[in-house]
Design a protein that fits this description.
The protein is α+β, with helices and mostly antiparallel strands and 834 residues long. The protein folds into five domains: 141 residues, Orthogonal Prism (Agglutinin, subunit A), CATH 2.90.10; 133 residues, no CATH class; 164 residues, no CATH class; 93 residues, Phosphorylase Kinase, domain 1, CATH 3.30.200; 235 residues, Transferase(Phosphotransferase), domain 1, CATH 1.10.510.10. The chain contains 15 helices and 47 strands. The chain has an eight-stranded mixed beta sheet. A five-stranded antiparallel beta sheet has the order 35-36-37-39-38, with helices on both faces. Helix 10 runs antiparallel to helix 12. The longest helix has 44 residues. It is elongated, with a radius of gyration of 45 Å. The N terminus and C terminus are likely disordered. Bound molecules: 2-acetamido-2-deoxy-beta-D-glucopyranose (6 copies). The site of one 2-acetamido-2-deoxy-beta-D-glucopyranose (NAG) has 2 residues, from loops. The site of one 2-acetamido-2-deoxy-beta-D-glucopyranose has 5 residues, from loops. It comes from Dipteronia sinensis. Its EC number is 2.7.11.1. Its main location: membrane.
Length: 834
């Protein structure tokens, strides 16, 4: 009994299920009846769109009960006015939709190529309504068995696995066509096609004319439709073979319900079903802009929506009619400025001769200009080959004079395949994403022009570089020869000369002179070691610089260098008397300067009184001349690298003498700039490029000089300067006053500037020029000497480097430094991490 009930129940369910998704011969579907696919995904039945009373037969997602967005309509152009529509399979084996009241056939499926024996219509879970032979019952996925399927005749909706394209065997075109309006399913203005001409592309047509070319397939997406690209949920498929060309998309997770719709306004939109809200959500719409209008700019022009006007001839092309073009009528397009060299017939030989494939340019012929990130031009007339590489593609294009452009067919994996254009290039636009490279043929002379316009200085630069290299080589040879001759001379003259030119002091006498280097005799400590005062047996006073032992230099090199330094003789340089090199001691013996160093005077309120303006001038000019000698006039080019007030000594007549020069590094006359791992210098006097990048040049000394000038005039230290109004350092303060035309306020009160204020202002001006941020802006020392001595007009200074204490590196950050507690000024020497 139970079994019987069970059996009845089971068979009922089974019958219900089969009858629901299938229409057999002799069965009818009347208005009001619903066909449901086996998995209950889709439904088919009669509906009235919007507020209309007309009845249409359509298919929709079963879940979509509220909106009922119909995905397919059978009788879209022939509505039934009442509810007497009947769908059945006719005796000929086709689906027919009739009006029972009048027996009119309003719609029928097209005749199949073969006659069915026992036709049935089935609504599949894909939303496809298929007509097939009943004995193929279990094979719902093989389209070859279908006599007819609704998927071949889309309405405005592309469902997953539905194809648009052309079947070359049957000649059937499947395309989307919009509804006329939201409540009128009849065929509207817009259609979305795969145009099989040339290399197939997707086009949106309005009526018969191409409105928008969505472009050819590049392996990932249609070139003009980068928005619709594969994502984790779906895959896009494009197939092109002898039998057919089509595009479709597939959904990985079948519980995801999606539809792509061409709406009545020609906009392609994608929707996904939101289970939570039971409604459709638009995931993306193909947003188009003016540049997407097909051939807006005419031939050989590109469209860039960010430009006004948005159309521009391709590089090397000019408007065919300038007048029309300027009136924003771009339809005439552009033509080549310079004809191609390659003429039909002779091109092949030319390219053979110059091996074009390896080089972009080819002498006596044409080359290719690369455009990046563009939507490829219309491919209706291209030649293509899916298997050849880009290099072979280029070869093919250059070997045929009619070929005017080429590009990769497939952008995946670095590009493959080949597209060749033989006609004017139409409908190119810039693409923010998903654009491709396009190579356009140009006469080589035009390419040269373009290159020259893009890099106007390149030729000049090449000439300059070549000249520089040649003169550098020449300079090195000459210098090498000089050094060689000099060394030879030195060797041949023996140590006798050595001794006479540079007296060697013995350690004992130096120790005696300095009270055995007692602290009482110490004058100070610089970056290279302490300095002691000494008195020799004959009464001569000397200053002894005892160099730190950590120098990596060998003794012989040290002597050589000292000899060089000793040859630097100038009124404004401290004189080197000799050296002492015993027991790995290295000492330099200088003349003694009784008046101490400049900082002893300028930063002291009472001692400053001694320095009137004429003395200041004398000191500043003296330092400038000494520095100029080091930079230019000496046989060696010396960059001091640690010029500061405490390194300027004063003799009895208050003449400045620069000390400690040549110790940091001396090098050949050609070199003007070098990078160093070891930064030697004193914060406050070090230029930004030296402090930060370790790049020193004569201009870093100029910077230090500028600081010194401002310090002398203001009587304030640059480092440690403070002011109640701001936290700028001395340079910043001077710069500020200068810009506010209050530079007089910078001048120290002890200077009686009433007589010479304009001259003092000039010196401030020069100081500011010397401390400018950019080394290239700073004058060199010869200019400085001229500026200080003349009254000509000066350029306006730019912002100084390090004008605020805050943007100076803290001295604490140095990795190694020499500190001296006796002075509050510290010479640092740090290793830059490089
Ligand atoms: C057509 O209409 C007639 C009369 O109203 C009715 O008897 C018949 O069943 C209808 N046919 C179908 C297929 O509904
Ligand atoms: C579109 O083309 C077809 C066939 O070429 C033609 O019959 C029809 O008149 C054209 N329609 C328009 C609007 O030009
Ligand atoms: C498919 O999607 C549904 C709903 O979004 C989700 O619950 C399910 O886990 C997914 N299945 C797979 C295999 O990803
Ligand atoms: C494409 O190029 C390959 C290799 O050169 C060639 O074998 C093939 O025939 C070409 N295909 C077409 C359609 O020209
Ligand atoms: C160049 O290509 C055109 C178009 O494909 C073809 O008609 C012509 O024969 C080719 N010329 C040469 C020299 O290969
Ligand atoms: C388009 O124009 C903008 C603005 O002028 C420019 O930055 C951009 O590089 C242009 N794009 C192309 C592909 O030329």
């Amino acid at each position: 009994m139970l079994l019987v009930i069970y059996f009845l129940l089971f068979s009922f369910v089974r019958i219900a299920a089969t009858t629901l998704d299938t229409i057999a011969l002799g069965q009818f579907i009347r208005d009001g009846q619903i066909v449901v696919s086996a998995g209950e995904v889709f439904e088919m039945g009669f509906f009235s769109p919007g507020k209309l009373r007309s009845r249409y037969l359509g298919i929709w997602y079963k879940r979509d009960t509220t909106d009922r967005s119909v995905v397919w309509v059978a009788n879209r152009d022939t509505p039934i006015s009442d509810s007497s529509g009947v769908l059945s399979i006719s005796g000929e084996g086709i689906l027919v939709l009739m009006v029972n009241s009048s027996n009119d056939i309003v719609w029928s499926s097209s005749k199949a190529s073969r006659a069915p024996q026992n036709p049935v219509a089935v609504l599949l879970d894909s939303g496809n309504l298929v007509l097939k032979d009943d004995h193929d019952d279990n094979d719902n996925n093989n389209p070859d068995k279908f006599l007819w399927q609704s998927f071949d005749y889309p309405s405005d909706t592309l469902l997953p696995r539905m194809k648009i394209g052309r079947n070359f065997v049957t000649g059937l075109d499947s395309f989307l066509s919009s509804w006329k309006s939201a409540d009128d399913p009849s065929q509207g203005d817009f259609t979305l096609w795969i145009d099989p001409e040339g290399f197939p592309q997707m086009v949106l047509k309005m009526g018969n004319s191409t409105q928008i070319r969505l472009g050819s397939w590049n392996g990932l997406h249609f070139t003009g439709l980068p928005q619709l690209k594969p994502n984790p949920d779906n895959t896009l498929v494009f197939v092109l073979n002898e039998k057919e060309v089509y595009h479709k998309y597939e959904i990985r997770n079948s519980s995801l319900l999606v539809r792509l719709v061409l709406d009545p306004f020609g906009i392609v939109e994608r929707f996904t079903w939101r289970y939570r809200t039971s409604s459709w959500a638009q995931i993306n719409a193909v947003v188009l802009d003016g540049c997407d209008n097909y051939a807006l700019c005419g031939s050989n022009a590109g469209c860039n929506i960010s430009n006004t006007p948005q159309c521009e001839c391709l590089t090397g092309f000019v408007p065919k009619s300038l007048g029309e073009w300027n009136q924003l009528d771009w339809s005439g397009g552009c033509v080549r400025r310079m004809p191609l060299n390659c003429k039909n017939g002779d091109g092949f030989l030319k390219y053979e001769a110059v091996k074009l494939p390896d080089t972009l340019n080819c002498k006596n012929g044409d080359g290719f200009l690369k455009y990046e990130a563009v939507k490829l031009p219309d491919t209706s007339y291209v030649w293509f080959n899916k298997s050849i590489s880009l290099i072979e593609c280029k070869k093919s294009c250059s070997n045929n004079c009619s070929c005017i452009a080429y590009a990769s067919l497939d952008v995946r994996e670095g590009g493959s395949g080949c597209l060749l254009w033989f006609r004017d290039l139409i409908d190119i636009r810039e693409l923010a994403e998903g654009g491709q490279d396009l190579y356009i043929r140009m006469a080589v002379s035009e390419l040269d022009n373009i290159e020259a316009r893009r890099h106007p200085n390149k030729k000049k630069q090449v000439i300059i570089i070549v000249t520089c290299i040649i003169s550098a080589i020449f300079g090195v040879l000459v210098f090498g020869w000089i050094v060689y001759m000099w060394k030879k001379k030195l060797r041949s003259q023996g140590s006798r000369k050595d001794d006479t030119e540079l007296p060697i002091y013995d350690l004992n006498s130096v120790a005696d002179a300095t009270n055995n280097f007692s602290n009482k005799n110490m004058l100070g400590e610089g970056g290279f070691g302490p300095v002691y005062k000494g008195t020799l047996m004959d009464g001569q006073e000397i200053a002894v610089k005892r160099l730190s032992k950590c120098s990596g230099q060998g003794m012989e090199e040290f002597k050589n260098e000292v000899v060089l330094i000793a040859k630097l003789q100038h009124r404004n340089l401290v004189k080197l008397l000799g050296c002492c090199t015993e027991k790995d001691e290295r000492m330099l013996i200088y003349e003694y300067m009784p008046n101490q160093s400049l900082d002893y005077f300028i930063f002291d309120i009472t001692r400053r009184e001694i320095l009137d303006w004429s003395k200041c001038i004398q000191i500043i000019r003296g330092i400038a001349r000494g520095l100029l000698y080091l930079h230019q006039d000496s046989r060696l080019r010396i960059i001091h690298r640690d010029l500061k007030a405490s390194n300027v000594l004063l003799d009895n007549d208050m003449n400045p003498k620069i000390s400690d020069f040549g110790l940091a590094r001396s090098f050949g006359g050609d070199q003007t700039e070098a990078e160093t791992n070891r930064v030697v210098g004193t914060y406050g006097y070090m230029s930004p490029e030296y402090t930060i990048d370790g790049i020193f040049s004569v201009k870093s000394d100029v910077y230090s000089f500028g600081v010194l000038v401002l310090e002398i005039i203001s009587g304030k230290r640059n480092r440690g300067f403070c002011h109640s109004d701001h936290n700028l350092n001395l340079l910043g303060h001077a710069w500020r006053l200068w810009n506010e035309e209050r530079a007089v306020e910078l001048i120290d009160k002890s200077l009686d500037y009433s007589a010479a204020s304009s001259e003092i202002l000039r010196y401030i001006h020069v100081g500011l020029l010397c401390v400018q941020q950019g080394p290239e802006d700073r004058p060199n020392m010869s200019t400085v000497v001229l500026m200080l001595g003349s009254e000509g007009s000066l350029p306006q200074p730019k912002q100084p480097g390090f004008f605020s204490e805050r943007n100076m590196p803290e001295s604490d950050s140095s990795s190694s430094k020499h500190l001296s507690s006796s002075t509050n000024e510290v010479t640092i020497s740090l290793l830059q991490p490089r």
